[in-house]
Q: What sequence folds into this?
């Protein structure tokens, strides 16, 4: 929990930074937050779990490319939501051990409309705890994307999925930039 709190505190610090206020600071905020999430998340583990059994169908080069594209896809999908933070309070709940090397940290974002539960699933890699899944209002990021990737892979090769992700990342980058 302490590791997660540290990362979230750093993100909130960036979000509250008056030097990054307004539209002019938006891109700088996104870049700073992106660097923090690089430390907090294990995107390779997130990718493996999102692809499930299909992971082994990807060559090592395709796996590396997939991890990079998936990370950019997630960053683009959630950047606007994170940057729209408006001093909501984040409440930390329980830390639930799932195994010797995994745990779920329960948090809630307290908004005017009520609490939004966000649980972070973390695993211990060496001596470092890293996020491998996020469950927002009961919906697992991994399960959500695994379903989508499974449908795409039913009709496409691993390289076909990579090409689809490339197009999506390029389109999202254009609309944000």
A:
């Amino acid at each position: 929990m302490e590791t997660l709190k540290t990362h979230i505190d750093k993100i909130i610090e960036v979000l509250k930074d008056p030097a990054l206020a307004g539209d002019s600071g938006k891109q700088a905020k996104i870049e700073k937050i992106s660097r923090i999430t690089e430390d907090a998340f294990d995107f390779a583990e997130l990718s493996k779990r999102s692809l499930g059994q299909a992971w082994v169908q990807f060559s090592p080069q395709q796996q590396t490319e997939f991890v990079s594209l998936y990370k950019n896809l997630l960053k683009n999908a959630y950047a606007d939501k994170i940057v729209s933070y408006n001093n909501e309070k984040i409440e930390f709940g329980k830390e639930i051990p799932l195994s010797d090397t995994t745990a779920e940290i329960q948090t809630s974002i307290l908004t005017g409309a009520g609490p939004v539960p966000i649980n972070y699933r973390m695993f211990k890699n060496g001596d470092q705890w890293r996020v491998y899944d996020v469950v927002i209002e009961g919906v697992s990021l991994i399960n959500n994307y695994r379903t989508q990737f499974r449908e795409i892979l039913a009709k496409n090769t691993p390289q076909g999925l990579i090409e689809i992700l490339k197009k999506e990342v390029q389109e999202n980058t254009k609309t944000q930039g």
In short: Residues 60-83 form the longest helix (24 residues).
